[in-house]
């Protein structure tokens, strides 16, 4: 019985050892899959040149996005100072208007009353002026008291103030005082465009009463449009006034619009970004306010770890370089790359082991081919 137990224990031990043996054998194979070793002849034929990762100043592109904006002085809200009913307008969003063009007609009985008050006050001024002069002469000859003269003087000057204020009110609503008289009183007024531009909003319809505080139309002068870009806090120090910007829309990515940075905001939003305003070098009528755009800004890195382009190889969608680990022996190491310039490519956040290693700067492609051939054998 004891002999049977010992035989079973020995069998299980042998079986367990047999199960572990493949795992021990697979480990070196996995480690060697990224290592390539050349003979002296292969080393010479491959033209391998080694070196160190260098520090280079490489231009990179900062990609931003934003939308077309218009400065406040180029946006106009149209309202009626005294209110009234909208009698006529032909405006539609997107229409072009010229400065001084009549864009709407508003009517109300208060316009009639205002003209009546002005003409009545103007008609009375002659009487009050003559009365003032008469009382002045009588007062100088002591034929009239100072009180009567002073009252006539006050009435005359008060009437002059009334006429001036009524004339200003008429001018405010767009009525030319020189054109009104007792036989020419209008119940409506025209609203004129103060700028040349495009209609962005129409908030009223025919027959609607518009109060003085209500915005009827919004006009935009697009000749000084800006591009407002969102920039995160970490990238603000890469930008400066006058820096060149290349902008484009998603619909026409090949159509580039050149500009430069005009203003950099200093207030951060809750999302830790600020707005950068850019001015276009040439005005393009196809760029309307609210259009979303992408922008590329050329920025300079202070110093970046970089390698020659020949040091990098692409394999299965990833970038690699070869690190020297012994005589004629190299290890394939994955890296993240950034921008390239003048034959060099930036390495993004390389580990200290990579930054201080000796790498293959020329002939990396030959090593990649050697590894592929080895895998196919």
TrEMBL record:
<dbReference type="GO" id="GO:0022857">
    <property type="term" value="F:transmembrane transporter activity"/>
</dbReference>
<dbReference type="InterPro" id="IPR006143">
    <property type="entry name" value="RND_pump_MFP"/>
</dbReference>
<dbReference type="GO" id="GO:0016020">
    <property type="term" value="C:membrane"/>
</dbReference>
<dbReference type="GO" id="GO:0015679">
    <property type="term" value="P:plasma membrane copper ion transport"/>
</dbReference>
<keyword id="KW-0813">Transport</keyword>
<dbReference type="GO" id="GO:0060003">
    <property type="term" value="P:copper ion export"/>
</dbReference>
<dbReference type="GO" id="GO:0030313">
    <property type="term" value="C:cell envelope"/>
</dbReference>
<dbReference type="InterPro" id="IPR051909">
    <property type="entry name" value="MFP_Cation_Efflux"/>
</dbReference>
<comment type="similarity">
    <text>Belongs to the membrane fusion protein (MFP) (TC 8.A.1) family.</text>
</comment>
<protein>
    <submittedName>
        <fullName>Cobalt-zinc-cadmium efflux system membrane fusion protein</fullName>
    </submittedName>
</protein>
